[in-house]
Amino acid sequence: MAAVVVLLLALLFSGGLYAVFAPTSKAEADETAQSLTIEEGKKLYSVGCASCHGTGGQGTSDGPSLVGVGAAAVDFQVGTGRMPAATSQGPQVPKKKNIYSQAEIDQLAAYIASLGAGPAIPTEEQYGPQGADIAKGGELFRTNCAQCHNFTGKGGALTHGKYAPDLEGVSPKHIYEAMETGPQNMPSFPGTTLSEENKKDIIAYLDAVNSSKSESPGGLELGGLGPVSEGLFGWIFGLGGLIAVAVWVAARTAKAKKS
């Protein structure tokens, strides 16, 4: 019996040592790291977001529900400084300098993603313009986006004081996330509407347009705002020039008659 007891004690001792010192599996380590990220994100959310969006992200009269918006929406809104919003704001939340680091944004995004499934933060392979079809992107942009953002992405006015922002200088990741999540007045373009390749083509088109701003083959581009600015220019200077010529001709005619 003594030998059996000693054997059992030895097994318990060795099993305990193995449980303490055995390496944790990668899956368990990843799960632990994700749990810690979510926990840190929840703390940040409680301080900076809960007053408007509710303690559990359910939304209040001051802010919509965040359940199911996904990590991509958080990365866009917080990464562009639109959230947290100012206490007093106009009809639309403007872009501004963000107050969180990328690590903190990732933690917030992880917490919001844990509340309900939604679009994930895209990878560089998804939004990078490399290998994309710029011509196809221009066609897609003019069909789906130019009505609000103008055909060169300069932006434009909407109703009731709202506006489509200028896309120059916006990072490809944020453009992809905006198409995926549809922030504020913008409709969303999920994979069923615009595929991942389509989004990549649009991003490549905007990159090409923005990088060639200094090279205007048509001469003076008038801000690249399209027919509104061009029509105004033609109306003021074209019609004004015709009036000036008419006055000059009339004055010359009157002077000739007097002489």
TrEMBL record:
UniProt superkingdom: Bacteria
Enzyme superclass (EC): translocase
EC number: 7.1.1.8
Record field: transmembrane: 232-251
Cytochrome c domain ranges (all copies): 36-116, 132-210
Catalytic activity: a quinol + 2 Fe(III)-[cytochrome c](out) = a quinone + 2 Fe(II)-[cytochrome c](out) + 2 H(+)(out)
Cited InterPro entries: bc1_cytC-su, Cyt_c-like_dom, Cyt_c-like_dom_sf, Cytochrome_c_Oxidase_Subunit
Signal peptide: 1-19
Pfam families named in the record: Cytochrom_C, Cytochrome_CBB3
Compartments, record wording: Cell membrane
Subunit structure: The cytochrome bc1 complex is composed of a cytochrome b (QcrB), the Rieske iron-sulfur protein (QcrA) and a diheme cytochrome c (QcrC) subunit.
Descriptive protein name: Cytochrome bc1 complex cytochrome c subunit
